[in-house]
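Work Package 3 (structural annotation) set out to generate three-dimensional models for the target panel prioritized at the project kickoff. During this period the team completed the workflow that converts sequence records into discrete structure tokens, so that structures can be stored uniformly alongside our sequence database. As a representative example, we reproduce one entry of 285 residues exactly as it appears in the project archive.
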Amino acid sequence: MNIERVGSFTLGWGESLVWDERRARLYFVDCAAQTLHWLEEGDGRRRLETMELPSMAAGIVPAEDGTLVGAMDDGLHVIDPDAGSTSLLSTYPPGLGARANDACADWAGNLITGTLNLAPAEGSAWWFSAQRGWKLLDPDIANTNGPTACHLSGEPTLIIGDTSADYFAYDYDAEAGTVGPRRVYGDVQTLDGVADGATLDADDGLWCALIGGRQLARFTTAGLDRVLPLPVTNPADVTFGGRQLDRLYIVSVQLLPGATELDGALLVVDGLGVRGRPEPRVRLS
């Protein structure tokens, strides 16, 4: 296994890693600079592309038409990186209480997101359909992070991390936008760091960035499977990428206490022996 830095750039607050397998493109944001970035897999120079955004995008989700949907200050926006444009898709529901944070899509083309709180406070997790609007999923998620829609052991499941608690799993009906009672899927109470972004591998392992903890944790239905120490203090998000989906990318936060010289860099882990899965996409029409 090998961990390397990609490029020489430093992000103030790296977040929202997502791999677009159709374009072999890695997207991520710098929340501190209100910018979207991407790298083309076929570009041997690994040139960083940058798009300035009208506000902070804390969650980025690929859409079926090749655009992105971003959770921004005033609502969900459709982002077209090639055109350099953004347009409002939907304002947030009043019950969300603030702006949204991390986001993902499910296999039916819906989006899952929830409240952004930088400290423990009231928050909630929500389902959004471009055709049917918003539905409340869980009224007690202080800070939504690492949402993941998947089939665990064949069962439709939604996982939502709460930075103030753990990673929770729910039985999930994607078409109806409903969940069953929640259960703890990833217990981080005895680990260093708190729950942040996450990604699922092809073997149903959830790789979780534990911000402040200098590590990733992988959880399965059997519990904690392994931890991966990192050369950064504040890993914020992870995703699998590369044409074989066998490279694990990590972004981190430089603007937090305890940051190392590498915090804020984009890292890639090779040789893990596992592969990711293509991310589900939002259906806009």
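The longest strand covers residues 144-152.
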